[in-house]
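FIELD: query
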Amino acid sequence: MINEPKPNNVIPVSPSMYKLRPLDIRDVELTGGFWYTRQKQNTEIVLDHADSWIEKLGWYDAFIAAAGGSPKRPLQGKLFTDADVYKTLEAMIWEVAARPDATREARILEISQIIADAQEDDGYINSFFGIKGREFRYSDVAHGHELYCGGHFFQAAVARIRSGHDDLLTQTAIRFANRICEDFGPGGIEGSDGHPEIEVALMELFRATGDRNYLNQAKRFIDSRGYKTFEQHAIGFEYYSDDMPAREATIFRGHVVRALYFAAGVVDLAVETEDSELLQALELQWANTWAKRTYITGGMGARHLGESFGEDFELSPERAYTETCGAVAAIMVAWRLLLATNDSHYGDAIERLLYNMIATHPSAEGDRFFYANPLQKREPGIYAQPGEAPFRKDTLRAEWFWVSCCPTNYVRLMASLSGYMATTRESEIRIHQFFTGDITTTTEDGKLIELAIETNYPWDGAIKVTFKNSPGDINLALRVPNWATGSTLSFNGDTQPVAPGYGEIKRNFQAGDTVILDLEMKIRVLEPDSRINAIRDTVAIERGPLLFCAEELESSSSKVDLDNFILNLKEEMQEVSIGGLSDVSKVIRVSGKVLAEERDENWPYVENKQTRSTVKTSIELIPYYAWSNRGFSTMRVWIPFHEDTK
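FIELD: result
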């Protein structure tokens, strides 16, 4: 039985206990600017692109075959492609909830019927297992992804429930959830899926329905992991987060997406059971991972083997895997920790991930996508032909991938992005991410707040917040990023300095009152920790929330060999306003030198290379998210400098 949806409950993450309460996605409307452009593109292009590729590759047909029907295409795809159907369906549901569309609603009902037809009499659903002629149910819990797929189905159902529906989709999902609880409950199958996801999904299903069986089963799955119960993997039991219990771990390890999905479920469990010790363990794991195993983009995953983290400070820019799915999963964890702690660091982390990982995923046109996200490319890369869905994950952006977890994760995040922008609590509105648009919401103590937000962020640091109504005594808090030293907060002409964290103004606000947060948007030169051996004696350039990179087009008539370029930090860097490169407003021009001639040697190590003749030159750095949009190119984020130019 589904609880009656609450009036303000169309929320991706809805904890029953929190320090900050997330807003309904309908309460936040993006009307212009950076994220509006991307959300609009997701609505108009990317979501239908995903739907059409899933149709083209026969992943809907797999459900038709499971139901005993006659599919249009032969059974194909990986054993986890059901999850991509479910993630795309979830995106459609958030999309219709926020931006009603009769055609898309009809598509939701059509896909729901395809899934429901494939459900077995006892509630089980999977297009790969349990079907005549295929593997038996749960015959490969380490790699079968049955519960993983089910988890993504449940998250789609949660979106549907929170959108106010009790229909075929939700009823089908609940029957499947009940089947899993019976199969894996007390006296049933021991252990869990090798790929976590079911844990966070069951926690949200518990929150959406009030059925504690789902919380209890999520706890069983979480408590059973960490005892080396899965088969050994090439990188060890940590591949499955099965090397030690969640309470004992001090850092995220193993397969990045598995570890982060698991962490999101553990945070949910800690919050709902008021287990402060478990929550603190997850805070520690996040802190250590962010400090030692995270790239400057916010991406995680140094090793292609096992799609895994690697050891502390093992952060090679060339070998970076940093899967887009890992960025989505990291946002899932950071958002939950933000709601639980009210620590602005998590808002900073989400900002870094959004601008430098999530925004990098699609092409400017919205019809090609990155899977892995390296920070250096010595060669222009591998181009996937139109209509090709490559198996490889190190290509340039491709229209689709045979393993399509990244674009389907992207569409569901962008469809629900409004739910990650702001929070409320008693007599407070707190803005964590900056956008142009409107907020209309009610605080816990019943005060209606109507705001208009104007900004040209990330190109400009001014964020203007205007009250459209008179809410009374309200605390308005705006996140001040950790990089934004020297910023100010102004109210009706009174300007005060504001430190990183949150800038807050509490007063009896009236309609027309305006608050302006002005973030200092200077160019910043960052040096890596000396323990990151791969990038010693290099620097990276940031401005505002954006990381910049050097990109050299293969077609350029004045190419600069980026492998030979040495930055001169004594020369002033210049912001240059441009047009014509995606939606980039500014690039940064830097000066340096290159070797006049690179000799071919029979041994690549020489004495006193720096004494060889050089030529002064300059290059323009572009935002990292925009690279690989202008043709074949090389690229690097970390740029060498020499001590005499520092």
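FIELD: remark
Residues 94 and 416 are 6 Å apart (CA to CA).
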